[in-house]
Amino acid sequence: MRVLVCEDQALVRAGFVTILSAQPDMEVVGEAADGRAAVRAVEELRPDVVVMDIRMPRLDGIEATRRLAGPEADDPVKILVVTTFNVDEYVYEALRAGASGFMLKDASPPELVNAVRTVARGESLLAPVVTRALIGRFAEHLRPSRALAAPERERLKVLTPREYEVLLLISEGMSNAEIATELVIGHETVKTYVSRVLTKLGLRDRVQAVVLAYRAGVAGNGDRL
Q1: Which domain holds residue 51?
Q2: Tens of pLDDT, residues 117-128
Q3: Among candidates 79, 45, 75, which has minimal Cα distance to 64?
Q4: Is residue 140 part of a domain?
Q5: Which of 55, 131, 189, 208 could bond 185 through an S-S bridge, CB–CB 3.0 to 4.6 Å?
Q6: pTM reported for the whole predicted model
């Protein structure tokens, strides 16, 4: 798989490149030190996955992600956002911009490699611990007004009660295994429910499901429709 690394700190960028280049199934086809350079590089190199920092000069990772993977992108590319969460208050916006997932910069090399592979397969990567931290720190800030949430809540009415319950648990950052334990159902059954939720709501992955739950004002509060 072809990977582009976008990170403004040279030492961190070099570390990512070294780790990913050592994998037999990966090729780092380019590097970028800011968002503008990343957009140009993607247009020229067409990587399978972009490892994207958020805080960068000239054009930040959120806007670069929106241009490369957002609703108006002609040919969206998969974005893995890597961030220092404890100083970064823009993770939610990165997800809304179209990122397929994010992980922390203090993750281990194997975790980084696995994250790139996961995103390359078209699956979302949203670590439960990060989701919970996101909810805990920014829930009130992110919760929309009743008027803004109403159209999104209307979308959720296509879900059955059990599917809606699964959506709420996804929005709390639970993994499939944790959802299975919470609902006392099998792991494969959870996968089926998650797939139905995404299909019915027209969502690409569970990252988008978390975003929709926030926009509908139901994330983290257990509201019933």
Answers
A1: 2-126
A2: 988 887 666 665
A3: 79
A4: no
A5: 189
A6: 0.69
